[in-house]
């Protein structure tokens, strides 16, 4: 993984089969998007070395939140690919964006934001180590690779924080 891989898409390909369709029998079931997304995340984590880096620091990961916006159906027997990229990280979590794209017209059929929470390790340190150990950049230049939070991501994180606060203290909200 070179220093630009934080923003480069990793591509995972698929095809909508009869086992993937909804009860209308003509397009991918909404739950299948999440299932396929899990395969794409595993592929991303392995190909970039992210999972190995987390484990080498004694950490683990757990999915903290996911939101998906469906834009157009993926029809039966249609090919698609999923792009995955890290769009932001903080001390505790890594945020990724995934896009389900049809190759015939490069249309984004669905876009997904995911928060992966790291346990027993620091996400800032993991990403810095990943950049330093897999490229020729030093620690200081690796730290400058951190992208700015987009407005969409900032609002999504805020929404999740409000929900968590409510669940911890439902009488306060």
From TrEMBL:
InterPro entries: HotDog_dom_sf, THEM6_lcsJ_thioesterase. CDD domains: 4HBT. Belongs to the THEM6 family. This is Protein THEM6.
